[in-house]
Write a structure and sequence with these properties.
Largest interface: A-B, 27 and 28 residues
CATH class of the largest domain in chain B: Alpha Beta
Shape of chain A: flat
Strand order of the largest sheet of chain B: 7-6-5-8-9-10
Structural class of chain B: alpha/beta
Mean pLDDT of chain B: 87
Largest sheet of chain B: 6 strands, parallel
Low-confidence stretches of chain A: none
Structural class of chain A: mainly alpha
Helix content of chain B: 55-70%
Largest sheet of chain A: none
CATH architecture of the largest domain in chain B: 2-Layer Sandwich
Number of domains of chain B: 3
Mean pLDDT of chain A: 82
Strand content of chain A: under 5%
CATH superfamily of the largest domain in chain B: Glutamyl-tRNA reductase, N-terminal domain
Number of strands of chain A: 0
Helix content of chain A: over 70%
Order of helices and strands of chain A: HHHHHHHHH
Radius of gyration of chain B: 33 Å
Number of domains of chain A: 2
CATH topology of the largest domain in chain B: Beta Polymerase, domain 2
Distance between the termini of chain A: 20 Å
Number of helices of chain A: 9
Oligomer: heterodimer
Radius of gyration of chain A: 19 Å
């Protein structure tokens, strides 16, 4: 499985490098290389995840190695959706390096120490649903973050009237604003269903909906923050700059949620 | 075969010299017929625009020096201009340098405003005049087609022409940056200055759907409405209309702020924070710069536009560096194809001649061989052809070698020995 994941990493690295070069040089031919490499990587990655699932007999989302690999996969899928919808390929130069990093770390983790703790959890169908939804929510929030940063960079340049190299290479303010809004709505929807399935599953296991563990608390805070963001956006009071800052701040909370359990322990023992 | 390019451009010669050397279309075709003598100068082409007069010619092998002299004299004779008057402004490029120069010209790398699109059309025109005069042959046809290919590649692979470099077009560029597309946007003109009018024209061409015109004098406003359509709005009660505008272009002769902070505050109440772009083309300024501090409002005065223009020019220059690399690699490719093309017919002729001899001789002796099976017949032919090919192979190799070394003398003597004159 490692060799397959290595091939995936190689494809992603090629895609990321070409995406960055295309971003800097604005060359369509480079972008095409990136697209094809990414598509190849994604197909291989999907195959690797399925193979993992079948061979290990549990949904591939238990161990750090698996979660990181899966997160990379969701990021690629989300990026593909954004490109399909908005043609905003500049996003790739920001997302793909992270995808490479995640895949690399996933590869670097040695498998073997992982015992059989997994089996008990994967008994229910709720586990894959709960985790998959949340991972796509994370990916969507990352897109919100990147789009917000793009917004802030450009807004700053427009306000200060200092037009650097970035100015000519990023999508327009309206486009990044739209990407951020759509991704935030999508992310929040996924997060809501994800949390709900988690509660359902938890109550089925031990009759408790809420365990007060750090991951749950951060998730709730994240949920609240994006809800506020979307409400403000839809009433159009908070378009632009402030909303973009919120998109950045929100992602800090998402990171806390993602790493919360690992650093502070609690009910959610796994990544 | 070599290519020479001789001429003047806006960098090498002042306009007083360029205008004396310029060719009209008729002078061009006529001049080309006298220029090409079929002896030293085999093919010719004249590019004559307001920024350059250049003669491109293909000369006989090893005659580039003589060819260049003839072109220079031709310029002097046909324009009735003593050589001493323009001699020092002339540049003279040979072979790969000439090709490079022509590629750069057509790709707009040698233009006054790098990336301007007209020059390619001018080269195209020069070529059709040469075709008309019958002075474009094997070499120039290939050269010009390759030139078009390079110009197209430069345009599509680099951003050399991507960003606006004129003030009036900046509004469109900024609009695209803020709103993505101008389709369906509302533009409001405050005042009817010439610059504002030009910008409005660009915006409407780029898809802006609605034009509001506020002007102190009704008459000037009416004039604009006649030209672009649009609605006249009350200059003194601007706020409600301001609320509808995505673009406000301001150029009045007023000496104080016409678009004030309080006016804009009132207007954006109704816009629900949708962004607005103010472009202030007037000096003294008409839009209070403090407005630019409000969220979702972007204000650009004439200095800001200038600075975007110069940033775009820098961007074009960056892109031009990449274009130069494309030109370099294309020059190499062209040189190679030219070489292959030039030696090709001679080598083909030699090969054919040898094989022809073999076949004729076989035909003459065939009767004496009696009846043969088809296999045997084929074997004899193959044997003969293989023999002559083996004999001519070193000759062909030597031809190619001396061609690559531009050794015209050896090449000619080889041709003479085997009696090839293509």
């Amino acid at each position: 499985m490692r060799s397959l994941l290595l091939a995936v990493l190689a494809a992603y690295v090629v895609a990321a490098i070409h995406s960055i070069l295309a971003f800097m040089n604005k060359r369509r031919s480079l972008q095409r290389v990136s697209d094809w490499a990414l598509a190849a990587g994604f197909v291989l990655h999907t195959a690797a995840l399925i193979a993992d699932w079948v061979l290990d007999g549990h949904y591939p989302l238990f161990f750090p190695r698996e979660t990181l690999s899966f997160l990379a996969w969701t990021l690629v899928a989300t990026y593909a959706l954004v490109v399909y919808r908005y043609r905003a390929r500049a996003l790739g130069s920001f997302i793909l390096p992270l995808v490479c990093l995640l895949t690399f770390i996933a590869l670097a983790f040695r498998s073997g120490t992982e015992a059989t703790t997994a089996t008990g959890l994967s008994a229910t169908w709720l586990f894959p649903v709960h985790t998959t939804l949340l991972f796509f929510a994370y990916a969507a929030f990352f897109v919100v973050f990147v789009a917000s940063v793009m917004y802030l960079l450009q807004e700053r340049e427009l306000k200060l009237k200092t037009f650097g190299a970035v100015f000519h290479r990023l999508p327009s303010l309206t486009t990044v604003n739209e990407i951020a809004t759509t991704s935030a709505v999508t992310g929040l929807t996924l997060l809501t269903i994800g949390i709900a399935t988690g509660m359902l599953w938890s109550s089925a296991r031990d009759g408790r909906l809420w365990h007060n563990d750090p991951k749950e608390i951060f998730a709730a805070l994240t949920w609240l923050l994006y809800l506020v963001l979307i409400i403000y956006r839809s009433t159009a009071r908070w378009r632009g700059r402030k909303a973009a800052w919120m998109g950045v701040a929100g992602f800090a909370l998402v990171l806390c949620t993602f790493f919360g359990a690992r650093l502070m322990g609690g009910y959610h023992v796994f990544g | 075969m070599s290519i020479v390019l001789i001429g003047v451009n806006h960098k090498s010669a002042p306009v007083e010299v360029r205008e004396l050397l310029a060719f009209s279309d008729e002078a061009c075709t006529e001049g080309l017929r006298t220029l090409v003598d079929g002896d030293v100068l085999r093919e010719g082409l004249i590019v004559s625009t307001c920024n350059r007069v250049e003669v491109v010619a293909a000369t006989a092998i090893g005659q580039s020096k003589e060819g260049a002299d003839r072109v220079t004299n031709f310029l002097s004779n046909s324009r009735n201009l003593p050589l001493t008057l323009f001699d020092k402004h002339l540049y003279n490029h040979n072979d790969s340098e000439a090709v490079t120069h022509l590629f750069r010209v057509a790709s707009s790398l040698d233009s006054m405003v790098v990336g301007e699109p007209q020059v390619l059309g001018q080269v195209r025109r020069a070529y059709s005049l040469a075709l008309e005069a019958g002075t474009a042959g094997r070499v120039l046809n290939r050269l010009i087609h390759h030139t078009f290919h390079v110009a197209k590649r430069v345009r599509s692979e680099t951003g050399i022409a991507a960003n606006a470099v004129s003030l009036s077009y900046m509004a469109v560029e900024l609009g695209k940056k803020i709103f993505d597309s101008l389709a369906g946007q509302t533009v409001m003109l405050v005042g009817a200055g010439e610059m504002a009018e030009l910008s409005a024209r660009h915006l409407v061409n780029a898809g802006a759907s609605r034009l509001l015109i506020a002007n102190r004098s009704e008459e000037a406003a009416r004039h604009l409405v006649q030209e672009f359509g649009g609605e006249i709005v009350d200059f003194d009660r601007m706020a409600p209309h301001l609320a509808q505008a995505d673009f406000v272009i301001c150029s009045t002769g007023a000496s104080e702020y016409v678009v004030t902070e309080s006016l804009v505050r009132e207007a954006i109440e109704h816009r629900r924070n949708r962004p607005v772009c103010f472009i202030d083309m007037s000096v003294p300024r008409n839009v209070d710069p403090a407005i630019g501090k409000m969220p979702n409002i972007f204000v650009f005065d004439i200095d800001d536009l200038e600075s975007v223009v110069s940033s775009n020019i820098r961007e074009r220059e960056r892109e031009a560096e990449r274009a130069e690399l494309i030109v370099q690699s294309e020059v190499m490719q062209f040189q190679q194809s030219l070489r292959a093309m030039d030696i090709g017919p001679a080598m083909g002729a030699l090969r054919q001649k040898m094989q022809g001899i073999a076949r004729t001789e076989l035909g003459r002796q065939r009767g004496r061989l009696g009846s043969l099976t088809p296999e045997q017949e084929l074997a004899i032919e193959a044997l003969l052809i293989a023999t002559v090919n083996k004999i001519s192979h070193p000759v062909l190799t030597q031809m190619r070698r001396s061609f690559e070394a531009s050794d015209a003398e050896t090449l000619q003597s080889l041709r003479d020995v085997f009696g090839i004159d293509e």
